[in-house]
């Protein structure tokens, strides 16, 4: 039976990767369209490739250093696992970005030729699905290899599957298991960190730079080919929103799986797992569950790929695909949980140490807890950021009083929006803990990410459509084409809200579960009640305070980095407009390449400091103040990073949509009121007033104010927010890798 | 000896209050100046009085409800102590504001008549000193009464002084001591909360409203009598910066003293204080130390009041006064610490349970730790907010690219600025803990606030000078008068930075020490090592998450409240300008009263929700989830509130000063560079560019952008930041009062 279950995971990996290859070539063999379109797409592709190449060179050096250190200080298995993680994560990002830069122009061309939303959607989604399938397939492949080959040694596969565990197996578990698996997670994290941070700086520097001069000074629309920064902006979408997002979610997915697996191993070693059969199930459940989730996603993705005629309701079609994936995962997950834990005696299952309160269904229910929490958090984000609701409308209304109130209202909305999601998170933590102890918390993270292939496909389809629109605009195609791509793009933005909920939620759950393993790794306990991180211990408290400041510091550095790179971009765009006046008339072609280089250089230069700081902080302080201080750092950083991620994501989203609300004429109702007032009005003042308020759409002062808000919010929501999710996981992982060393050797121990 | 020491405190109280009365009448008997000046000052006074009256009515109702609840649920002693605290705190705010509204016009008049900075400074400082002396005098008086009369009962005074403690005494300690003392602290906290929040909303609504229309639309300078909101703005200074600040610092001072006293009592009851003599010293040290600090402040204040001719270097004179107060406090504090603890055997003093690592000097050294930390945090704030340094200059430079980058840079600076102060705080916590255990942490808070009379005097002198400038402007006096008051005002802003460091630092220390007492109050432990708040306990963890969101939620509500009230003000000012066009020509007098009412009503309405929410949150969740959850809430809230307070204070300050930097011509160096460029330039573009950059002072686009930043920052630094300091203390205090009840009776206990 267990053998069969494990085979499911293998089948899922093979199918997913094959499917990705198939879709890749399906998309690539389509026509590019006109020569101009090909040219522009080529420029985007070259820019994106160049950046990723530079970035990967930098990351390779840092990665090599880390690998050597891990090899010397920890073990060769951990070093190999680290390299595997880094290579797989980097490859997923690379492949996904590659196909995105092929797909974008083909989406434009499909829209141009077919004028059909459904057909265009199919191309865009196929492109996105390559990334989705690669992320999940590669991640799972790596987990299986590392887990079976390096974590335990090949000989033990049979043992673990049968649940008959030998001395040899236990030796393997004790000597290298945790370190090797966290080495793998670390490899994925490092790539995710650099891709997210680098991509985030790149894309927002280009975006802000293009907007600050283009929209505000030269008053030309977005994606106008006359703007020299416009190609860089489109490259940024591929670099940040495709490659960055892909390796980010790969890392979350791996983190969720491995945090559960590592925890199971640690609990067994501390005598808290009272049967070998149970250990085997606890170790395999996350992998099998993820495998089934991947199969479910293949079904969901096939719905869109294979359905002969997609309807025009893009939102519905995408939702159906996602819900199929999620629904099948939840349904099959229930069966898996049942089959994997049903043979274990109830008294062992329900003992306090594991705490499966509702027997064999506990891990499954915990996963469901996670899924529900993720959806609810997404819905709450939606409430605070969509212009259908009061908060964002309020920001739009405030824009009438100028940019200061736009910003102020946005900050307030972002701050207020932290409360409810956190309450939901707390409920989910409490619920999943009650269901299955700390293991339940990692199951909740796993639940959120089990159908990651589907969500990444949808998330990647968004920037592909965005790019397609850009290409349509720059190639000066029929506006109808742009309308189709805009429709696809806007749907992408809505579905992204739920994705954000999952990102934050799963990061929090995974970080907590990794922290538990961290505490296990240096404590000598054999009861779950003894797992203590006492915040009243001054060392822990000081750590928590410093840790709490870290996300603020990190965010500040990122914002500054974006602003710095954006200012350089602004100067360059201004220079080009000044030196080549023909650009604005359309008689001269702007120099796109220099802008791309500025974004590249800016991102590569500015990403180092924040990333390296956050990698080194827990290690250096660990060697100085010891493991309790670092424990405090982890909890402090996790708590404030969650708050800041919510704050940044929601305030940024709200500003963005407040601007869109004004563009869509949302403030016009005021205008109509005034229209009526005009008729009744006897006083000249009322008329004058009405006139002042009349211009409330695009280009009005209110819109200008909203643009300021949007520009402020952009780096918050697209650079800082997502990077914070990674920050907490990378810090937990790196501490987990290093703790065995610094818990023995630290300055504090030597002195006190 | 101990009797003598306690007498010092009594003498300090009597002297301080007498001195305050003397200065009050000294200032009041001065001339008001011209009729117009009297009129304006009268309007400000009436506005301020009316608001405080309304506010105190509201607070009286809420206070009465709390008093009754405390009486029923806790004890009559606690209820009386609560009322005493509330009345004393309210009175200090009232008296200080009263004299400030007399002093402002008299400062203007002194400047007008004498044209001498020194003489004007003396009047302003005398006015401020009334508040400083009242705050410290009233607070200490209340502490002595509550401590000796209601905390222990009158009969025990002699016992405690002699260190011979009877059964009776211990019974008193066990039955009502902690509750009564924290009841007193709660009374002070409630008033501080409402005064700070209400005053903060009032002042910033008026300020933002006046600026948004006046500066941005009508282009009239600040404090111009044509702006209808200008009187409301000046009323706001008195309400927020004088009364709000006064009761805020009174509360901090009380919190610092009582957290030490309560902790000493709790430690004794848990068997951790191994001698009665030691208990007596621990209980009395904070009071005696504070008494000496007050005497030292009287000396420092007298330096300015009595010195026949003050120099023109206002900054130096104020610094000398503060340093005298601080120096004498530190010096005498050393002696007190020595005399109070020298008779206690070293083995008792140095045992782990108390942990006086360096014997009788330990509490004093811990206090010094606090003072140093406060100063360093202040200096760091100064670095991030003063325009002499890079961060603020960077914001000013960014303003050239428009408001979006101003805001972005300010946010980044604020976020980055959180790191260093927190590291200093952590070091100080660790240091004071190493010196004298948890008692040391409360001593650190005490150290920061021991010379509060001097710092409040300086802090209050600022808004008095600010008001004086406003009156000079509105009465259309000689610009020379305004120059003098501006000079005084600008110095006030600089000295305020150090004050902020003390405010945040002491709040953090006091909250931590109160939290220790909170844990003592429901745990059954007799070793300090057993004092555990395990963050890995899911209940504590969920509490910490929810607690961490609270300061964000609270801040968001406050910002929203300010923005809402400010928008109403904007509408009113616009209406007046529209309906009475004569106002802008100076032929019609604007309707100041309506604006004052709008600010009043706005503040009164908007302050309720955030304040009541924060008071109820720990109590309600305590009754539902029990004391461990609330413990988590307290630690989570404390940690994020410190971060947010630093972020808000520093970003707001930096924006403010970036604007001032531009006004002072800070961007002109760029202009000079361009001047040179012009000579060399051959291209017309360079000239055009130079022209565009030429206008870099007041009224330039860069300045407009900086004004946006300042407007965004205003509510952050003046409403949110200071309110957060109170938030964490009020939550700790209220939890401490309620914990005995909800640790027995809570829903969670019933279910699980």
Map the helices and strands.
The structure is a homodimer of 752-residue chains.
Chain A: H1 2-28, H2 35-73, H3 76-114, H4 117-151, H5 157-162, H6 167-218, H7 230-269, H8 276-306, H9 314-341, H10 346-349, H11 362-385, H12 390-398, H13 403-416, H14 419-449, H15 452-474, H16 479-522, H17 538-579, H18 582-585, H19 592-625, H20 627-663, H21 668-680, H22 684-694, H23 701-742, H24 747-751
Helix pairs in contact in A: 1-4, 1-8, 2-3, 2-6, 2-7, 2-19, 3-4, 3-6, 3-7, 3-15, 3-16, 4-6, 4-7, 4-8, 4-15, 6-7, 6-17, 6-19, 6-23, 7-8, 7-14, 7-15, 7-16, 7-19, 7-23, 8-9, 8-15, 9-11, 11-14, 11-16, 12-13, 12-20, 13-20, 13-23, 14-16, 15-16, 16-20, 16-23, 17-19, 17-20, ...
Description:
Two copies of one chain form a homodimer. With 752 residues, the first copy, chain A, is mainly alpha-helical. The first copy, chain A, has helices at residues 2-28, 35-73, 76-114, 117-151, 157-162, 167-218, 230-269, 276-306, 314-341, 346-349, 362-385, 390-398, 403-416, 419-449, 452-474, 479-522, 538-579, 582-585, 592-625, 627-663, 668-680, 684-694, 701-742, 747-751. The radius of gyration of chain A is 26 Å and the shape is globular. Chains A and B meet through helix 6, helix 13, helix 14, helix 16 and helix 17 of A and helix 6, helix 13, helix 14, helix 16 and helix 17 of B.
